[in-house]
Design goal:
By secondary structure, the chain is α+β, with helices and mostly antiparallel strands. The protein has 2 domains: 55 residues, no CATH class; 66 residues, Alpha-Beta Plaits (2-Layer Sandwich), CATH 3.30.70. The chain is 34% helix and 30% strand. It is built from 5 helices and 6 strands; from the N terminus they run H-E-E-H-E-H-E-E-H-E-H. The strands form 2 sheets. A 4-stranded antiparallel β-sheet has the order 4-5-3-6, with helices on one face. It has a two-stranded antiparallel ribbon with strand order 1-2. The radius of gyration is 15 Å and the shape is elongated. 23% of the residues are buried.
Length: 122
């Protein structure tokens, strides 16, 4: 299915297929744990500037801009929230919301394939 939220809720095991090849399989929890990252999601007025500020911070593994949201991946997300908020404030980047969350299956798919699932919102 291309409906990853539905698959997460209903499936006991999943396989992720990229270009006709199974590249990962396991339970939804195993797949999400395998990418090993928490996500700090920050909604801002200037996402490109925010990404520039967040990327060099210690403990940040990857940064992605999705619309007005910047997603920062870190293996220790809870201790990265405050430094991200402080760095953005010091650089004058207005933060509208900041949320810590666990990875979703969309995050897993994107990490493993480098692209969003067809039919999913980018």
């Amino acid at each position: 299915t291309q409906y990853l939220e539905e698959a997460d809720a209903l499936a006991d095991r999943l396989g992720i297929i990229d270009q006709g090849q199974i590249i990962a399989e396991g339970t939804p929890t195993e797949l999400k744990r395998a990418i090993g990252a928490d996500i700090v999601a920050v909604r801002v007025d200037d996402p490109l500037r925010a990404a520039e500020v967040i990327q060099p911070l210690p403990g940040i593994d990857a940064v992605e801009v999705r619309g007005d949201e910047v997603l920062a991946s870190s293996t220790d997300g809870p201790i990265r929230v405050s430094p991200i908020a402080v760095a953005l404030a010091e650089q004058g980047v207005r933060v509208r919301s900041l949320t810590l969350r666990e990875p979703t299956l969309d995050d897993v798919f994107l990490t493993l394939t480098g692209q969003h699932l067809a039919g999913e919102a980018a």
